[in-house]
Amino acid sequence: MAILRPDSTSTLGGVTVKEYLLTKHNPNRIDMPSVSMTGKIIGVTVHNTDWISVASGTTPAEQYTRATVNGNMNDVRVHYYVDNTCAWQNLPLTLSGWHAADGSGNGNRRTIAIECIMSGAYNSIDKKSEDNCAKLAAALLKQYGLGISHLYTHTHWLNVRDGKSGTVDQLNTMQNKYKMCPLYILPHWSAFKAKVQSYLKGSTTSTSTSTTSQIYRIRKTWADAKSQIGAYSSLENAKKACKSGYTVFDSSGKVIYTSNPTFSKGQRVTLQNAPLFSSDSAKTFSKKISGTYYIYDGKACANGRYRITNTAANCGKTPIGSYVTGYVSYDNFK
């Protein structure tokens, strides 16, 4: 499909918005939300999606919009994609989206969704994308007569869905095992919120995120930004929150602390819909398995995987290929 041309271009909160509504453009007949949000909007939900390289003459926000039209975004439907240059509007603000993973909850049904396109580098491009997101969020809150307490994260709605309680900001940043989103903004959520507030008040000067304060991120590897389960300004708090198999990194990616899991030969483990790999380096799993299995030899392999077998009597027997069921990542063990 050729690069899309917007039906109209406008400016909202200082951000160039290119309108290309899926309600008008749906040549592939992708599934669409159908619930009206007229008179029901309670806030703006902020997400992060990964930066992508695009051809000359377009932007990541257009590319994500085009991918949605092509059916390549699965069942994700958001109101805006925003990058360092502009925003593309995909849904009318009178229509709910599919973005909060809370079914018919308030996240999907009553908030405007903004996907901010960033990478884990937090470079000048990321900061401009984030700034555009803050401007757009502030303009939308102002448009609906809402204050800063109506600014939500994707994780907020996951925590509500899971029955957790707390203040808006506690739920915005509280750990959720399903997903921490917006992944790249959450480590400095309070600074982002202050930036949105400054735009809400009509300030022309952005409040910048501090580049001097140290943030300690907890990930499986530095490169695997999506595995991040927390970010802390306190190293001690980061260490306390670091689970087995995860590592605490400083802002430059340097390893500060690691908590490694240990599993012994013959140890019984329970699996529930766990991906089974043919080797410790395989990038795709062969199938998903559930049930009781046993650690084959207790040796940690690459990518946090261990060899498993289906009976205790098989543990340690050779040849390996005859007795090992496959490789499973330790974070699936229960």
Textual characterization of the structure:
It is built from eight helices and 15 strands. By secondary structure, it is of the alpha/beta class. The protein has three domains: 8-200, Peptidoglycan recognition protein-like (Lysozyme-like, 3-Layer(aba) Sandwich), CATH 3.40.80.10; 216-259, no CATH class; 268-332, Roll (SH3 type barrels). The strands form three sheets. A seven-stranded mixed sheet has the order 1-2-5-4-6-3-7. The chain has a four-stranded antiparallel sheet with strand order 9-8-10-11, covered by helices on one side.
What is this structure, in a nutshell?
This protein has 8 helices and 15 strands. The protein has 334 residues and is of the alpha/beta class. The chain folds into 3 domains: 8-200, 3-Layer(aba) Sandwich (Lysozyme-like); 216-259, no CATH class; 268-332, SH3 type barrels (Roll), CATH 2.30.30.
Q: What is the strand and helix layout of this fold?
A:
Blueprint: E1 8-12, E2 15-19, E3 43-50, H1 60-69, E4 80-82, E5 87-89, H2 106-110, E6 111-118, H3 124-143, E7 151-153, H4 154-161, H5 168-173, H6 189-200, E8 216-219, E9 230-232, H7 235-241, E10 246-249, E11 255-259, E12 268-276, E13 287-295, E14 305-309, H8 320-323, E15 326-329
Parallel strand pairs: 2-5, 3-6, 3-7, 4-6
Antiparallel strand pairs: 1-2, 4-5, 8-9, 8-10, 10-11, 12-13, 13-14, 14-15
